[in-house]
Design brief:
The complex is a heterodimer of chains A (113) and B (113). Chain A is an all-beta fold and 113 residues long. Chain A is built from no helices and 11 strands. In chain A, 0% of the residues lie in helices and 55% in strands. In chain A, the strands form 2 sheets. In chain A, strands 2, 4, 5, 9, 10 and 11 form a 6-stranded mixed sheet that branches. Chain A has a 5-stranded antiparallel sheet with strand order 1-3-8-7-6, with no helix packed on it. In chain A, a hairpin with a 2-residue loop joins β6 and β7. The radius of gyration of chain A is 14 Å and the shape is globular. In chain B, 0% of the residues lie in helices and 51% in strands. In chain B, strands 2, 4, 5, 6, 9, 10 and 11 form a 7-stranded mixed sheet that branches. Classes of the chains: A mainly beta (113), B mainly beta (113). At the A-B interface, β4, β5 and β9 of A face β5 and β10 of B.
Chain lengths: 113, 113
């Protein structure tokens, strides 16, 4: 079993919809959680970075972490065609293993005009 | 804002040929990484360098070598390319602290015939 699970999609929504992207994980030692957006033929671009449980908002994006359920989410409000991309979740432990990041396999999102 | 720069962007090799992929970052980060990304398998760590002068194996190091030339540059070498090494290769960098995320380049698309 992978340490980080992510539904590959594709997820297709109409423009303006609220999108919910999710990852589950098995290791309770994870404390730092990231969401990356990857456009076709580009590298992953950091979108959101959160520590421990709770919510973080940045414009139309909200990252949510529920450590008790080992579940993280990325919400996109008022989705736009330009949000069409693959979204990767990533996580890492706390004070040890600084260089070990665990990635989901990505969810492909298509926002239709 | 160059960030992480990878060269070349595309390359086609024949089986048995050798090649070096180059990566440079201008963010003064201590840690650098090489990943490969294959459909359905997400990002897999090949090698990383926690700081200048050190390198360590990741999840899939066989068939690859790396050199941390200085703080800015981290190269990946395929000594005898095999078709199984056809992939998209990403370089990333980060600060060597637990609360810092990775930043990625735009990748090198490598095909081995």
């Amino acid at each position: 079993q992978k340490e980080v699970e992510q539904d590959p999609g594709p997820l297709s929504v109409p423009e303006g919809a609220i999108v919910s992207l999710n990852c589950t994980y098995s290791n309770s030692a994870f404390q730092y959680f990231m969401w990356y957006r990857q456009y076709s033929r580009k590298g992953p671009e950091l979108l959101m970075y959160t520590y421990s449980s709770g919510n973080k908002e940045d414009g139309r994006f909200t990252a949510q972490v529920d450590k008790s359920s080992k579940y993280i989410s990325l919400f996109i409000r008022d989705s736009q065609p330009s949000d069409s991309a693959t979204y990767l979740c990533a996580m890492r432990r706390g004070e040890t293993n600084f260089n070990k990041f665990y990635f989901g396999s990505g969810t492909k999102l298509n926002v239709k005009p | 804002n160059a960030g992480v720069t990878q060269t070349p962007k595309f390359q086609v090799l024949k089986t048995g040929q050798s090649m070096t992929l180059q990566c440079a970052q201008d963010m003064n980060h201590n840690s650098m990484y090489w990943y490969r990304q294959d459909p359905g398998m997400g990002l897999r760590l090949i090698y990383y360098s926690a700081s200048e002068g050190t390198t360590d194996k990741g999840e899939v190091p066989n068939g690859y070598n790396v050199s941390r030339l200085n703080k800015r540059e981290f190269s990946l070498r395929l000594e005898s390319a095999a078709p199984s090494q056809t992939s998209v290769y990403f370089c990333a960098s980060s600060e060597r602290r637990s609360n810092q995320p990775q930043h990625f380049g735009d990748g090198t698309r490598l095909s081995i015939l």
